[in-house]
Design a protein that fits this description.
Blueprint (H helix, E strand, L loop, with lengths): L17 H24 L21 H19 L4 E4 L10 E4 L1 H17 L7 H26 L17 H7 L6 E2 L2 E2 H7 L1 H21 L4 H19 L8 H4 L5 H14 L2 H8 L6 H30 L11 E3 L5 E3 L10 H14 L11 H25 L1 H9 L10
Antiparallel strand pairs: 1-2, 3-4, 5-6
Helix pairs in contact: 1-4, 1-5, 1-10, 1-11, 2-4, 4-10, 6-7, 6-10, 7-8, 7-10, 7-11, 8-11, 8-12, 8-13, 12-13, 13-14, 14-15
The structure holds NADPH dihydro-nicotinamide-adenine-dinucleotide phosphate.
Length: about 425
Amino acid sequence: MKPNKHKATHSAEREFGGALGATCIPVFLPLTVLYLLSVCRSPAASVLQWPPPLPPAAHLWDPLAAVLIVGWITLQSFLYLLPIGKVAEGLVLRDGSRLKYAINGFHTLSITAVLLLVCLWLGMPLGYLFELILPLAVCAIGVSYLLSMYLYIRSFWAPQHALSLGGNTGNPLYDFFMGRELNPRIGDFDLKYFCELRPGLIGWVVINLGMLMKEVELRGSPSLAMLLVNGFQLLYVTDALWNEEAVLTTMDIVHDGFGFMLAFGDLAWVPFTYGLQAMFLVVHPQSLSTLGAAGIILLNGIGYYIFRKSNSQKNQFRRDPTHKSVSQLETIATATGKRLLVSGWWGFVRHPNYLGDLLMALAWSLPCGMLHILPYFYVIYFTILLIQREARDEKQCRAKYGLAWDTYCRRVPYRIIPYIY
Ligand code: NDP
C-alpha cells in the first residue's frame, strides 16, 4: 500500500496547547514521573525542597527492570490473546465497519493474581519493586516513546478513514503526540485497546502490592493506611476490568488517535504516579484511627457508588434505551436521533461519573495524613484532568448535538459539583 503522506481533509482545532504543548509535554511529563518518585522516597517528601532529591544517573538504570518490563508486557499480551471471555463489537467506524474486541480483562487480572500468589508463595521478593521503581519507570517511559514512534511511522500506511480526526494536522510533533491512527492493529491485536486497561492498570496494583510487601519487610505487617490504599485502588482497577466493555464507548477509544499521549499515559503515567500514596507510606508510615479509617472507607464507598451507578446508567441507556432500568428516565431529543438523559444521575450534574471519581481520589490520599501535599498529587492532577476532559467533551457534544446540548445545559446547569462547578 502507498503511504498516506497528506493530512486529513478537515481542519482540526488543536488541543493541549497545540504544537508547543505537544513538544513540551513529552519532555516535561516523563521528567515529572521521575521527580515525583524521587521526592516520594526522600525523607522530607517535600515538593518544595531545594535542591530537589534527584537520583544519580546510575540509579536510573537496571537491566533487571528492562527484563521485568518486557516480560510483563509479553505476559499481558499473551493473556490478552487467550481465547477466553467474550468478544464485543466497538462503535461503528467512519467506513461503516465495526471492530471486534476481546473482553477478557477481568480474566487477565484473575490469572495475573494467581500467578503473583504462586510467585509470592515461592518466595519472590515483591518488595524489591520499591528499590527498582526508578529504573522500572525509566524503562516504561522508554517503551512508550518507542511505541509512539512505531505508531507514528506505521500510520502513514493506514487508509484515510482509519486516521483520527484530531491527530492529522500535518505538524509531525503534534500528530506524534495526539496519535494519527485511530485503532492501530497487528492482525487482531488492537494496540490501543490492549494498552488502555492492561499492562499499566494491572501493573499499578502490582506495584502497590510490592509497596505493601516492602512495608511488611520493614515493619513486620502492613499498616491500616497501606491496606486502605491497596484495597481502594484494587477495587478501582477490578471495576474497570469487570466493566471492560464500557471502555469501547469512551473518548480514548472512539475519538482519540493512538499516539504518545495515550501510550505514555497508559504505560508510564498511570502505573507510576497513580499509586504514589503506597510508595509514600513505605517511607512515611501513618497511624490511622478506626474512626478516621471508617470515614475514609465511607467516602470511598460514596464515590464508588456515584461513579458506578452513573456510568452504568449511561452505558445501559446508550446500549438499550428501552431497558426497564432507564426507560422511565426523562430525556430530550437531538437532531442526531440519539437522546440525552436529563433526569437520574445525568440530571444531577452533567458529569456525575467525574464527581464520584474525584471523591474516590480524595479517599485514596487521606490515609497518608495531612502533613504532605505529595500523596494528594493524584487528586490535584485528576481534578485538573477531569476539568479539561469535561471541557473537551462539552465541546464535542455541543458540536454533535447543537441546540439540544444547550437545552441540556440549561436544564442541568452544573458540570461536576452541584452548586459549585
Ligand atoms: P463519559 O463516560 O463521561 O462520557 C461522555 C459522553 O457521554 C459524551 O460524549 C456523550 O456521548 C455521553 N453523554 C453526555 N451526557 C449525556 C447525557 N445527559 N445523556 C446521555 N449521554 C450523555 O466519558 P469519559 O471517557 O470521560 O469517562 C468515563 C469514566 O472514566 C468516568 O467515570 C471518568 O471519571 C473515568 N476516567 C478515569 C480516568 C483516570 O485516569 N482514572 C481518565 C478518564 C476518565 P454520546 O452522546 O456520543 O454517547
